[in-house]
Amino acid sequence: MEHHRNQQVLCKNHENYDNALELKQILEAYDGIVVSNSHVWKRTRKAFLSFFQHNKKSAAYMDRILRQVIEGSLVPVLDHFQRLGTEVDLQDVLGRFHYDYMCLLAIGFDPKTLSVELPAVEIAEALRDIDGALVYRNVMPQMIWKLQKWLQIGTEKKLANGLRILDDFLYRCISTRRDELRRSEAKAEDRFDALTAFMVEEGSDSSELRKSDKFLRDIAYDSLTVAKDSTNIGLTCFLWLLATHPSAETKILEEIKANCSDENTVHFSGEELNKFVYLHAALCESLRLYPSLPLALRYSKKPDLLPSGDRVGPDTRIVLSLYSMGRSEDI
């Protein structure tokens, strides 16, 4: 019955269930592309796809900086803690890895948060405060967080401070990049971060829109935050499961050795990764057991009758447990 209920909400009658209005209210402090109207969103999505999927220069740049962060930061840091034999918060390490990579990808800046010192970084702390406040808004009644916002206390105070710090940083990066472009210092072929690309690329219907500081700020913000927590949680759970299932770890290592000429390689191309069938299956199994986003929220627009016989009124919150769905034999 759970399976049919979820199908009703997510597939058969999905037009009646969304989270757009609630999401827009929760994210109103951000006021970025995620909550923009459909016309702006479609133009922005087209520009994003053009950069991330259909541009050879961006693909080469992404591969180069990924190798740079893996070989220059992630592996040395993990080796350091292994030699010392000390415990380390793996989710923190992977979060720093993702943040450094996305900073290079989005704004061409390496914050170097992933080092053996594991330093505190103001921008990273601000992003955590923003995320924490938005999660709080999602689980608490609207009247409570709106009261905190009016009084500027609790998580709402942290949210306001975090957004101010982040905006100061991003607008400063945009101004610096504009100055560099005027001096022709950032047009080299090996420099193709999103900020630079959106500033200099022409020939699309969003070329004028992409020139504004506000649009560029939203692009940078989206790039820094997209899949941030879900990636960290997914990788952490995956590596924990491998550590507790040595037979699966052995099979993955054997598959890598069978498809890699140099056993010391720590970075693989997309073509090489396509050969790792068991690794792919293990990652999917990890996400089934421990989904990075364990809950999905939807709101009904109109009344509905679920297959279980339960009636759903308009403007009703529906909480779907993806964690439970992944462990349901019926599904």
TrEMBL record:
Its cofactor is heme. Keywords: Heme, Iron, Metal-binding, Monooxygenase, Oxidoreductase. InterPro entries: Cyt_P450, Cyt_P450_sf. Coiled coil: none annotated. Pfam families: p450 (PF00067). The keyword Iron applies. Belongs to the cytochrome P450 family. It comes from the Eukaryota. The lineage of its organism: Eukaryota, Viridiplantae, Streptophyta, Embryophyta, Tracheophyta. Gene3D superfamilies: Cytochrome P450 (1.10.630.10). This is Cytochrome P450.
